[in-house]
């Protein structure tokens, strides 16, 4: 008993020294002294309605069956990313140790926590400001809000429900440049909104670079001064292969503003809900995009904007930015519904 108490005391000191902004957090070590049956995770996830995650536990390759925290994404968000690996998503959404909502609120703004996926970290932020009590702030994991906190907590396993899902983490997620706003305490509005957008842009560019969209990331850097002053944005992106394949994608960077819907976040679900003929204003003054074919995004009912088929949704999706993949650059069209 004395040894256990000593371990708990050492843990508290360790957490207090490692929760500085930008530094990865070690799991609560005293909570790893007990193990749980691996089948428990699948059973709980299935009972809560996360059948896809439950089925993925067999292939998630968790290195150990210690107390675990899972940030569970919704099925409706997962189906918008057909190229995503559900077992890897589960690993990247799971932490060693127990992180209740109360514990997450106590972490410094921008704290990074290592996941079950090697060299991949999640970042914890809050909507609370220095002028508000921390208890009233919403908690975000990589910009995605926890909308169903502590769905399950039996002292061995904690499940939190997310509003959406976190795109596959980049190799730089544990060491993203310290100049980003996640490395600083949140500022009171309006400064906080400006710094948050800067961080989200930099994180988005990092994710795009490691996902085969490096030219888009370059275009975002070129237009960074204009993008950083927006409240939010939706960007339609083309992968590097398509840009260099001779399909006219070489002009994409110069026309990037025509591929950005400013001050509006349109997730896959939002796009599917838009009726045919919907006009979307772009950063090019007076030039709109038009939904020319509404659909579910399936091969039989592809969503088309300016007659261009969308091929990948929610490449990046956080609290400020949504990025989707497309097959070719948009062309200016005169749309008239027949």
Question: Explain this structure to me?
Answer:
With 338 residues, the chain is an alpha+beta fold. 27% of the residues lie in helices and 22% in strands. It has eleven helices and 15 strands. It has helices at 2-18, 38-47, 51-56, 75-78, 86-92, 101-106, 191-209, 214-222, 224-227, 240-243, 268-273, and strands at 24-25, 68-72, 94-96, 111-114, 121-126, 139-141, 144-153, 157-162, 233-237, 260-262, 279-281, 288-293, 304-305, 308-317, 321-326. The strands form two sheets. Strands 1-4-5-6-7-8-2-3 form an eight-stranded mixed sheet. The chain has a seven-stranded mixed sheet with strand order 10-9-15-14-13-12-11, with helices on one face. Strand 4 (111-114) and strand 5 (121-126) form a beta hairpin. Helix 7 (191-209) packs antiparallel against helix 8 (214-222). It is globular and about 60 Å long. The N and C termini lie far apart (78 Å).
Please estimate the helix content: 25-40%
Q: How would you describe the shape?
A: globular
Sheet-strand content, in percent, reads: 15-25%
Q: What is the SS-derived class?
A: alpha+beta
Number of strands: 15
Given the structure, what is the number of helices?
11
Please report the distance between the alpha carbons of the first and last residues: 78 Å
Radius of gyration computed on alpha carbons: 21 Å
Largest sheet: 8 strands, mixed
Written as H for each helix and E for each strand, in order along the chain, the element string is HEHHEHHEHEEEEEHHHEHEHEEEEE
Mean pLDDT: 77
Low-confidence parts: 1-22, 28-34, 129-135, 177-191
The side-by-side strand order for the widest beta sheet comes to 1-4-5-6-7-8-2-3
């Amino acid at each position: 008993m004395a040894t256990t108490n000593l371990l708990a005391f050492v843990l508290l000191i360790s957490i207090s020294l490692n929760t500085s902004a930008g530094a990865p957090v070690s799991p609560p070590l005293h909570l790893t002294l007990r193990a749980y049956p691996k089948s428990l995770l699948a059973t709980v996830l299935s009972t809560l309605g996360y059948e896809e995650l439950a089925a993925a536990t067999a292939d998630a390759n968790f290195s150990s069956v210690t107390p675990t925290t899972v940030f569970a994404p919704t099925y409706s968000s997962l189906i918008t990313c057909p190229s995503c690996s559900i077992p890897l998503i589960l690993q990247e959404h799971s932490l060693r140790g127990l992180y209740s909502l109360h514990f997450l609120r106590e972490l410094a703004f921008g704290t990074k926590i290592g996941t079950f996926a090697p060299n991949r970290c999640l970042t914890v932020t809050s909507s609370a400001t220095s002028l508000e009590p921390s208890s009233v702030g919403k908690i975000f994991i990589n910009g995605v809000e926890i909308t169903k906190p502590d769905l399950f907590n039996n002292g061995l396993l904690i499940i939190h429900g997310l509003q959406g899902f976190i795109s596959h983490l980049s190799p730089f997620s544990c060491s993203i440049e310290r100049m980003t706003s996640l490395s600083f305490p949140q500022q009171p509005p309006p400064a906080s909104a400006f710094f948050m957008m800067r961080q989200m842009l930099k994180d988005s560019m990092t994710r795009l670079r490691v996902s085969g969209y490096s030219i888009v990331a370059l275009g975002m850097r070129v237009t960074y001064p204009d993008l950083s002053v927006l409240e939010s944005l939706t960007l339609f992106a083309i992968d590097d292969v398509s840009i260099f394949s001779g399909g006219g994608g070489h002009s994409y960077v110069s026309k990037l503003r025509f591929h950005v819907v400013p001050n509006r976040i349109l997730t896959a679900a939002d796009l599917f809900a838009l009726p045919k003929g919907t006009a979307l204003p772009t950063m090019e003054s007076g030039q709109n995009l038009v939904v020319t074919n509404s659909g579910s995004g399936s091969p039989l009912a592809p969503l088309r904007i300016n007659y261009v088929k969308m091929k990948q949704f929610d490449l990046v999706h956080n609290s400020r930015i949504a990025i989707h993949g497309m097959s070719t650059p948009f062309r200016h069209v005169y749309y008239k519904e027949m």
